[in-house]
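Reviewer 2 asked us to include a model.

Predict the structure of this chain.
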Amino acid sequence: MDFEDEFAALTSGTAFADRSDAGRLGIEGADALDLLNRLTTNKLEELPEGEARATVVTNGDGRVVDFVALAAVSGGLLALTSPGRAATVIDWLDTYTFGEEITVIDRTADTGQLSLAGPAAAQSLERAGAPVGGLALDRVCEAKLGGASVVVWHSLPGGADGYEIVVDAADAEAVRAALAAAGAMPVSAEAWEAYRIANGMPAFGAEFGEFNNPLESRLLGAISDDKGCYTGQEVIARLQTYRKVQRRLMSVALSGPAEAGAQLMSGDAKAGTLTSVVRGPAGYVALALVAAKQATAGSVLSIDDSDTSATLHDPSYALSTEPADPQ
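Predicted model (structure tokens):
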């Protein structure tokens, strides 16, 4: 199957990508939520079983350690981390654990993760035997797929409506086969990356990381503005209160080729940096961290040392998750 067919399935049909490279943690203990509440940006005093919430692990400078999704499942919490960040998140939690009752287990190697997307995703799951028609966004349930027990998580994988499916690694192939038999197309990592960029979904190392704060990456939907103290809160609150956020994540439509790392220019002045670039079916699209005063939908910037122009627009993921009137 070629790239255009894969991308079309993600955007107008249903398709799934193997994203087992992401991290998965099992978290247990009476003090687990309290500790996570003190170390991350979202409100986590309570998380009833079956519910899920995104949050950001921040350091004392308000920079992003990782963007984490948490779900309350039977037996504890399931956490999804960025690829390659599971050990870092475990170490961070361990650093701030002083006698609290909490156990964190890295489940990355013994589980698999499939991301299912597209407008027909729910129907594919139903045909595969998982009754998810009534599963609301940010909710999880346990189900059977291909004879295997799975956790189905209604979320925004790749920045748009879909499902994360977590399964024991030994059963992952059976689940892939069940999804394919139900009409979902397996797609390549390249197609999934194009889908992510087109939807404006930020990724660790490109759009967020310890080089910036979560406000720049437009992760506002995972930041509570009325919770108690957490690591990095003072910095983030000051940036919000005094409107001191220096950059904002924007989606970019490019008139021609460009590469990640290229400088965006407003006349002779630097205006931002392309962080992710892909050539999609409709042309080149990108994400960029843009100087706040230039980060306006409809603005047209140039690419340094290039004839390519860059038209900015608000990322769809940000529009669907951040509160009204950000910054």
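The helical segments are 3-12, 32-39, 86-95, 121-127, 172-181, 189-199, 233-241, 316-321. Residues 90 and 295 are 35 Å apart (CA to CA). We have added this to the supplementary material.
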